[in-house]
Amino acid sequence: MGSRRNFVKKTAIVGTGLALAPSIALGTNTNYNNKLNVGLIGVGLRGTNHLNNLLLRDDVNVVAICDIDQRRNDIALDMISKAEQTKPKVFGENDYDYRNLLASKKVDAVIISTPWLWHTRMAKDSMIAGKYTGLEVSAANTMEECWDLVNTHEKTGTHLMILENVCYRRDIMAVLNMVRQDVFGELVHFRCGYQHDLRFVKLNDGKTAYGKGVEFGEKGISESAWRTQHSLLRNADVYPTHGVGPIATMCDINRGNRFVSISSMASKGIGIHNYIVKNGGKDHPNAQLKFKQGDVITSMIETSNGETIIVTHDCNLPRPYSLGFRVQGSEGIWEVDGNRIYIEGKVEKSHRWDEATPWLDKYDHPLWKKYGVKATGAGHGGMDFFVIQAFIESAKKNIAPPLDAYDAAAWSAITPLSEVSIANNGESQDFPDFTRGNWVKRKPYNWIKDGY
Amino acid sequence: MGSRRNFVKKTAIVGTGLALAPSIALGTNTNYNNKLNVGLIGVGLRGTNHLNNLLLRDDVNVVAICDIDQRRNDIALDMISKAEQTKPKVFGENDYDYRNLLASKKVDAVIISTPWLWHTRMAKDSMIAGKYTGLEVSAANTMEECWDLVNTHEKTGTHLMILENVCYRRDIMAVLNMVRQDVFGELVHFRCGYQHDLRFVKLNDGKTAYGKGVEFGEKGISESAWRTQHSLLRNADVYPTHGVGPIATMCDINRGNRFVSISSMASKGIGIHNYIVKNGGKDHPNAQLKFKQGDVITSMIETSNGETIIVTHDCNLPRPYSLGFRVQGSEGIWEVDGNRIYIEGKVEKSHRWDEATPWLDKYDHPLWKKYGVKATGAGHGGMDFFVIQAFIESAKKNIAPPLDAYDAAAWSAITPLSEVSIANNGESQDFPDFTRGNWVKRKPYNWIKDGY
């Protein structure tokens, strides 16, 4: 959603809370024309990417869309019209009109692609409304919100899937396949993170989304309108899931393993300020702001199985993109940087890296083998096809998704926990056990058997 | 030195302590034939490598050697003889015979290349004896020993150089050169570590140094005789200096900056045990041992200038060697893994890595330009030539070396501090200020001006 905060008009439902939300028909799959009826909350750049993938499917009707930026609704309607599909119901009169979308009995499942501060609020409402819920990353901003996701899921019995697309990246799924086939032996250590120069995303001129200007918030548009505020006020890893999600699936977090504790440190934060001075001059009002977020934030996580995971957030300095994955076990190691691998006794030369590509090809995940051609072009190198596929297939059967409310909570908890740790000189923080002990009996999700 | 502990015979000096050490002629440069007279304590594999470099120089006499393994003394004598140089005095009758070497007025400077537990003890004695002291890494094992190095240096006025050869690696010096020329802008974040599969070093068959057997300690030889014990009993980064030394020179630790705090986490430790079981069988007595050292130990260090440094110790799992360097600032980033660099506005394509090689060539350090040809073949790709060069030139002038007692202490303190942090669930530990406040006025060492 674009500029939600610009809308001040509110409907009657605003402020009355969920007690007055329309009555809810629990359970999904009302099977409108034998298809899953999906509603989209947020059809900004991310939401329309999902829309695009939904329009390519023959098992989905997009029956409702909601964005407070009507231009975005128009773009979405145009896409739907060009795909020769039925015009959906449109919402977005005000900040809380999404609740009217949720009240629609026609909607089976909802995909939420809005600014971060709306994620948990909307997901909670959606679960209460009985809609199978897909939620964009990060899922939650605070520890209370992490619990909201879990508790609402448990209370309502409605499923939540965190739509972490990187879990479906081709190399990640090949490595997951290798992990399952014991290629790395017993797992010991991981690295990951979000290392992406976002200065040109966090700041713009209020007209162009990327590349020009040093405005944000009220004067910015697109992501700068809402995302930058988190860099201004929070010294935390505010975006951990692209890195830690894939690692969590490999080491079975919440399914026989769990995050136990975290310790975080932040470097100085100079990148955004420098960018403002360089592109807007030292007299620009934004050059006077003190951005609290450290440029490079490092977190060390310990799991109950004794692995360590190093998570990096590095978004304010000039650097090429890398999620910096490393998977290391008793038999070998894979690193995405340098595209290299070493498996004891199985690589060409002792103590020398092999190129990873032939290994990734050999262990290409069955899902990618099956759907790879279809996935290509779906966005982000095919990942987006798979994450939507998993969501739709799970929602159609109304079964637990591969990446669920407990995953959303545990991964997102890195944000508030890293913030406290940084503020306390790296003091380690305990993760809550969002499964309330159930991680000891929950089984790893079988992505191959279940087909998504 | 090889098997020091095998010698039980002690001379009278043993146990009497330093009070009875021979009287000391403070000051060096007695200028025996206008050359620096060097004594070597420890002529094992590392010591004879230094010897080899010393024998190639025309400004050094090797006047004394000391090893309790007489076979190592014989090898050293043979090297000296083949170089057609005067036979040195030989010591090594027992563990404390090195003190007799230190008592020799003929010796101006001493290089200590012995097992870790002897490093600080010998360096302290050497400084008290007034010998310009070169000490192999790591310099100290405990916090008390870190202070011993500093306090003895201050009390005696004798200089200590920590012989950290990686500070002189060609790529490291080129990057140091880039740092000094502000190519990376304001420094923000660093990574480094010792990532080296040492299982075949820590375990052997008591006959071959590397590659066979699963013995160590009394039944092992070479490094396995003394090094492995540290993996058995200490869950700490026991070998931090190859990584952190070069980074410390780049960010001026103890010279306008200092290490402030550290937080460390250890993964499970399974690598050594697995290696023993695989190569010695599960019934081998060593398969019953519990090695305390985690396989991957990660430390986060915060500096007073607000940089963060991630230091890794990863020596018990199958993996190719890498010190994992990364240098990141406001203008760009260099990573040794992948041999890549990004400098904003100066690389070919925005958001794309450049190959680092042309940059490293362009900023090749003046010292490497001058001595590169000579250095090649000196050991470890030329680094060893330079570290010895710096030591000898500093000792000849009796001036402070580039890497001094404060550096030795600060870098080595990572071992005891990481140990306490790990034992306390990652609780951050404060570094002592070994300079007693002087870091605020100490100037960065000018490696170019001073010529080494």
Map the helices and strands.
2 copies of one chain form a homodimer.
Chain A: E1 36-41, H1 45-55, E2 60-66, H2 70-82, E3 89-91, H3 98-103, E4 109-112, H4 116-128, E5 132-135, H5 143-156, E6 160-162, H6 170-180, E7 187-195, H7 199-202, H8 228-233, H9 241-250, E8 259-266, H10 271-280, E9 296-303, E10 308-314, E11 326-329, E12 332-335, E13 340-343, E14 354-355, H11 357-362, H12 366-375, H13 383-397, H14 405-412, H15 414-423, E15 429-430
Parallel strand pairs in A: 1-2, 1-4, 2-3, 4-5, 5-6, 7-10
Antiparallel strand pairs in A: 7-11, 8-9, 8-15, 9-10, 11-12, 12-13, 13-14
* Strand residues, percent of chain A: 15-25%
> Which runs of chain A of at least 5 residues are low in confidence (pLDDT < 50)?
1-32
Oligomer: homodimer
Number of strands of chain A: 15
What share of the residues of chain A lie within helices?
25-40%
The description of the largest β-sheet of chain A is:
9 strands, mixed
Q: Average pLDDT across residues of chain A?
A: 91
Shape of chain A: globular
User: What is the C-level CATH assignment of the largest domain in chain A?
Assistant: Alpha Beta
